[in-house]
Amino acid sequence: TAVEIGVREGHWSRMFLQTWAGASYHGIDPLPLDADLESYRTTKNMPEVYKYGVETIAYLNANPRWTFHHELDAVFIDDFKDESLDFVYIDSVHDYAHVKETFERWWPKVRRGGIIAGHDY
After folding, report:
1. CB atoms < 10 A from the CB of 20, how many?
2. CA 21 – CA 78 distance, rounded (Å)
3. How far is CA 71 from its chain centroid?
4. Domain span at residue 53?
5. Entry's Pfam families (predicted)?
């Protein structure tokens, strides 16, 4: 089981699901998956990003291993037992204090030999 905190429009979720063979993948984000898509559609040179975003959301929603939690990660942390996760990927708020707090909160959920990683911190 894997958890991604900070999904945005699902680019990394799609990539991980296409390359990782785990049983379930949980994406957590307080914003809806399509929150940024409309701005991509109307911005110069961004229609291809919009198209990819729409395709990505369709891919995720059709994938039986994918579950999207539309809320803050702290709301769902108790849904996962300690040492039960294979992989946690943190890509939410990018300031030091928030990243540190998120790592500390999710670290106990990762099994021995599992991976906790992130982006932009």
Report:
1. 12
2. 24
3. 12
4. 2-118
5. Methyltransf_24
- CATH code (residue 39): 3.40.50.150
CA–CA gap between residue 6 and residue 24 (Å, rounded): 17
Q: What is the pLDDT of residues 14-72, one digit of tens each?
A: 999 999 999 999 999 988 777 777 776 666 667 777 788 889 989 999 999 999 998 99
Question: How many separate domains does the chain show?
Answer: 1
Q: What pTM does this model have?
A: 0.86
Report in angstroms the alpha-carbon separations of 97 from 53, 68, 85, 93, 101.
Answer: 30, 25, 23, 9, 6
